[in-house]
Amino acid sequence: MAKNLSNLLQKGNITPKERYLLIIQNDIERATTGKEHLTKGDIEVLQNWQAKTNNEVREWNKYNEGWKLSGRAGIDAEFVYAETKAEHYRKNILTTELASYPVYRERLNALQALKKIKVVDIKEAIEITNKQREQKLRNGVSFNYAVYKLALETLKDDYRQDLKKLYDSVEDDNECLDNEEIIANLFNGKDELTKEAKEKLAELVAERGYNKHTKEYQLFMYFAGIPIMEIAKKWAKEKGIKPSTKDYEWLDKIKEILEQYARDNQTTPQEIIKATCLKWLDEGLLIKDYTPIFNSKQKNAFSGDTKHQHDELFKEWLKAKNKARETLKTLADKGELKITTDETGQDRTLTGESVYSFKGDIKYFKKWSKWADEYTTGAGLIYADNDKEHTGDNLDRELLIAEKDKDGKPSIVSLFGRSIEKIEGQFNQHFFTETEKDGETYLEFKSDNIEEVFKTTRQSLIDGYAKLLAFQDIHKKLSKIYEIDLNFLIAPRIEQVCEFIDLHNTYLDNALKDALGFGLGIGLYKKPLKTSENFYIEREKIAPDINIMEDYGKKFYEIFSDEYNY
Fold first, then answer.
1. In 284-412, which ranges are continuous DSSP H helix?
2. What is the model's pTM?
3. In a designed cystine with 206, which of 59, 274, 396, 434 is the match (CB 3.0 to 4.6 A)?
4. Helices H / strands E in the chain, number of each
5. What is the DSSP letter of 116?
């Protein structure tokens, strides 16, 4: 207790306020802990008290009236909570569908991919396959990539295994080693990069993160051994942004922060990464941090130590690459291969016909020739389709050889057609749909009525939370007056509504981001969804309801005057 009751009673000058507060504090203690500091005799002494003056009566009545009004405020807060909870559960039928939308969308994407399978008869299948083969031969083989593949093929096995430890995709992806070579060339035999070389490298690193197809910036990319994510983290640290303990959460968080900062400052993520990379190059990037392999005496790698030092490995790789280049040039001089050059004089190509007819023992050429003979789905090549040629977004699709109807679709007796029709009939979202607009995909409501229900219930969470915050503020002021923490009366209700709001945002977030991925890895990519307006609830921006604050504030002020900090 705030004061010792026995001492107060012995003095005989205990005030009406002190008497009332002792009773209230004892009641609160019993309600929150199950224990009491007053005996029944103490309570009787405090309650069976006769006021001697009108001032004592007024003082007792003031705190008694204030307590009654606080009880009414508590009841009102309970009603607000009950209404908010009811509205939350009324919205459940909508949010349940929203929560399952990623699964629905993933399966719908898979169904759409099945529907994109091209229905052909056997004659069309042969014609399309031949068309694709002809196009592959016309496209030929990049001279530089052929050099890369031949260098790998002829490299001593222990060096090749070392490269695989450094870069697990080295068999097919030439970019990492090419970028390492770019860095080595920029150093040009010197111990440090020149100012111009740093500018060039920083620009290349920054551009590496930009995906031209999705027009998004991706922080998980690397330029040679330089992780763009670490550059982003360095930028965030310099801005006073603390990292998350979970890497996958930090990746999403910092990407969002980086993009928002770029918008606010009329710049781009590329420019931010470039500037940060440039600063880091001045501070020791590639010297103290992330040493390029041409200058590294280390043997460590992601999948175990290499047998040879990185600098030795790089030298052997360059030797193999130079030898492979000379080999291909020699074969071209002999007429066994044919090289063409584009109008710029920079891009050289081995003709497909010469690679296909090559009789020598180059494994990559044999593999390529076999690939040229096979029909390849998703290769982005030109193929015949009703006497029209398609490129770009219309990738080469899988072919279904089946009997067709007059519209070119699987006939009604087709097992494929009937199965697709039956599966499609099971996909029926009641409340949401997708629309394409200006190259973006939007999640929209199927009707104005559904949208109105969603908005109304969403607003009810916002309004309910604001009202409970107002009651919390009232309880804080009353806690000072009655000298006991009354927050326990309102805190659980606020916490529960916070959970309702967080759940609302989580379901919406998962639906828009499509956390389960796109198209089951079958090449049908869809961007994350957008909404035409912001349906998230930004809880931190919600202020206490001013009407409740003023209404109860006036009433409590009439009782307590300046003691209630209105």
1. 310-333, 352-356, 363-373
2. 0.61
3. 274
4. 21, 13
5. T
